[in-house]
């Protein structure tokens, strides 16, 4: 339980400009992809389709590499 409290969660809804490759940016991207997938019917989507949201949500250019 203490381990879970030690992790700082980053909101996918913040518009913070984290550095490319930083832990905070990775946490935000994971949270954002989780939110997007929760809105889909089958809870999955091709990585190419997720790339369409790159500009709107300030996702990294190499989103597919990060997710794989």
Automatic annotation (TrEMBL):
Signal peptide region: none
Protein name: PORR domain-containing protein
Residues in PORR domain copies: 10-68
Domain of life per record: Eukaryota
UniProt xrefs under PANTHER family: PROTEIN WHAT'S THIS FACTOR 1 HOMOLOG, CHLOROPLASTIC, UBIQUITIN CARBOXYL-TERMINAL HYDROLASE FAMILY PROTEIN
Entry's Gene Ontology molecular function annotations: RNA binding
